[in-house]
Amino acid sequence: MAKMRIGILTSGGDCPGLNATIRGVAKATYETFGDKVEIVGIHDGYHGLIHCDYKIMSPSDFSGILTTGGTILGTKRTPYKMMQIIEDDNVDKVKEMKMTYRDLKLDCLFTLGGNGTHKTANMLSEEGLNVIGLPKTIDNDIFGTDVTFGFHSAVDIGTEVIDRIHTTANSHSRIMVIEIMGNKAGWLTLYSGIAGGADIILIPEIPYDIDKVTKACQKRADAGKDFSIIAVAEGAYDVEEAKMKKKERAQSRADSGIVTATTRIAKEIEAKTGLETRTVVPGHILRGGSPSAYDRVLATQFGAHAAKLLKEEKFGFTVAMVDGKITENPLKDVAMKTKFVPENHQLVKTARAIGISFGD
Ligand code: F6P
Questions:
Q1: How far, in Å, from the CA of 79 to the mean position of ligand 1?
Q2: Measured from the CA of 182, which atom of ligand 1 is nearest?
Q3: For residue 111, which of 95, 145, 135, 85 has the smallest C-alpha distance?
Q4: Quick one: CATH architecture of 4-149+291-334?
Q5: Is 3.40.50.460 the CATH number for 154-287?
Q6: How far is the CA of 344 from the centre of ligand 1 (A)?
Q7: Could you give the CA distance from residue 169 to residue 164 in angstroms, rounded to a whole number?
């Protein structure tokens, strides 16, 4: 009898915990189906599915990867909005993905990724493929799940960055503006900002007023605290920019010659207060290295649950944690949505309660 065949891919930006999740899925799948299953690793996410780039995996491929960063399968960004567009290479991406799935005789495809990955996963599911998603991203912005794997590792790294900046900020009596990844949602900045003891936290969900930001720095300086730590989400913008459309905002920044919020905030603080200011951009360091213990546990839980969905032939779902329980959501319910930080989220309230400014 032919073996059951399962495809697995990782798509979008990498993060700690991808390998731990791949391992969780694989181990639980082998445990459930024994030698009746074969796992096919698709290289570089949907790009590999389009171009039929894959490797037949063996159980040993999944050993020793619990603690390793990155993804053994490789990953690429293959934007959802381009999936249905035929580009210069004349490749019909959707058709090719479906063809690879059929040619490889897959019975199911596990897709590990963030919002973009989930949109394509949902599309493939609607096209008739058996798809099960797993929610990955350091941004923690996938709708319908309390948490995504990769997020807490990045929080730990972001916290360490802020800790290290604290001592140098203190020594030099400087304002340090630290840019934390997160273009749309401010979860990572909020969590690492609180954990690292930032004085000001700026996130896209709460547009800032630069005068309020400078006042908060000045107030600290006047009180004898001659340094301040500002944690800024990559995608933060001010109250004026909040009135603009995304494209307009990008154009206005390009025209001003200062593209990032971080650089602009630092320049404005220095100009308005005279306080010496520096910027720090940890960037992809936030996504590198070994997953935290929390993420290893979460990845294993998510992986095992994905194998359970496979056993139950419950396709068109993505694994989730809801109110602390591991469960699943229909892909169609989460695919086109983003989980933002609610303005009245309890962590925002906690931060305000201890005097952290959001620049509003
Ligand atoms: O989606 C995760 C993320 O790290 C975002 O926080 C960030 O805006 C983006 O990816 C960076 O993407 P890239 O690695 O493609 O530059």
A1: 13
A2: 6
A3: 135
A4: 3-Layer(aba) Sandwich (3.40)
A5: yes
A6: 26
A7: 9
